[in-house]
Amino acid sequence: MPMEEKILQGLFLCSDQPNELLDELRPEWNDKVSLVIKEKFSLLNTQQTLFNVFPWKEELSTGIDHEKFCESFFIQPSLFLRLRPGRQKEVGKKLGNAGIAFDIIDDNCLALPNASKVDQVIELNREAVVQDYSSQRIADFFRRAKLKQADRVWDCCAASGGKSIMLHDLYPTIDLTVSDKRESIMINLEKRFKEAGIRKYKGFVADLANKNFEIHPRSHRDSKFEFIICDAPCSGSGTWSRTPEQLHYFEKKKIDEYASLQMKILSNVMPHLQPAGYLLYITCSVFKKENETIVQFIQQTGLRLAEMKLLKGYDKKADTMFAALFQKTL
After folding, report:
1. Span 262-272, average pLDDT
2. Is there a contact between 154 and 127 (Cβ–Cβ < 8 Å)?
3. Closest by alpha carbon to 157, among 132, 137, 129, 185?
4. Beta strands 225-231 and 152-155, pairing class
5. pLDDT band at residue 217, thresholds of 50, 70 and 90?
6. pLDDT in tens, 233-248
7. pLDDT at residue 149 above 90?
8. CA 127 to CA 82: how far, in whole Å?
9. Which domains does the chain have, with CATH numbers?
10. Read out DSSP for 132-145?
């Protein structure tokens, strides 16, 4: 269809309030923007349906509602803040004074409109961390692992370090090591850690898909860990409502490619887990080959599954994530 028509249909499907452009060009649609997505599709002159939005239904992890997941792509996700310890009242007051509306999700989590200019109001990373709601729920798995304050922890695919900052807030004296394949990401992590007041940690760059990587700067004596976090590279399909271009250009063959990469990384990381230690596997994927199938792979190595959960966010204006906690036998 013509580009103008595509834009108008997209605007109609993604709007929940009347707007001037639709009122001028499609007034019959503008009166119906409050309808649910499925009903909106029935009004359009198109062969597309709601279910065409995400065509890989058979690849979904168990428990995902395909229809609701498709609907989520037409709803702008929220911006979530995780409040640092002792900063709850301070952050709430600053946001209120700036006229920024927010919803209190729990004692440490706020939800804001996505375009909120929070960086102009609060000190990010020092007072609060931009972190999706589902990602914040990973803290439940940290607690389940029953970490001790001096335990050696390795966040092996740390990216910009959001989960490590959360872990540090729960266990300030852990012996923390972080790594990532990308040097630029580690530079960003270093900046965030500095802003968050985290100075006692070790970091290195390594491609964990290569079994010859070295844990640096650790000695051979202490190169094993009581807790390993593997927030693995993945399709990111649980976050595509934030990045719809990823959904548009995705090819199904990439699922197998990511699953293969995840198994390589895990195979190289797991030997560094102490007996009785815990491994936490995380993805922001909705594909079972990156989730439940990888759980089966890990179990075949002898690790015991302690807990597995699909963290559904598509009905909360949040990302959807998957997490599984394993313990190594003695």
Report:
1. 97
2. no
3. 185
4. parallel
5. low
6. 999 999 999 999 999 9
7. no
8. 9
9. 3-48 (no CATH), 79-130 (no CATH), 133-327 (3.40.50.150)
10. -HHHHTTHHHHHHT
pLDDT band at 219 (very low <50, low <70, confident <90, very high): very low
Helix, strand counts (H, E) of the chain: 13, 11
Residue type, 312: K
Distance CA 93, CA 87 (A): 10
DSSP letter string over 260-311?
HHHHHHHHHHGGGEEEEEEEEEEES--BTTTTHHHHHHHHHTTPEEEEEEEE
The gap between the terminal CA atoms of the chain, to the nearest Å, is 62
pTM: 0.94
CB 175 within 8 A of CB 203: no
| Contact between residue 235 and residue 285 where contact means Cβ atoms under 8 Å apart | yes
Rounded CA-CA distance 322/286 in Å is 8
Q: How far apart are CA 82 and CA 112, in angstroms?
A: 11
Four-CA torsion 250, 256, 259, 264, nearest 10 degrees:
-120
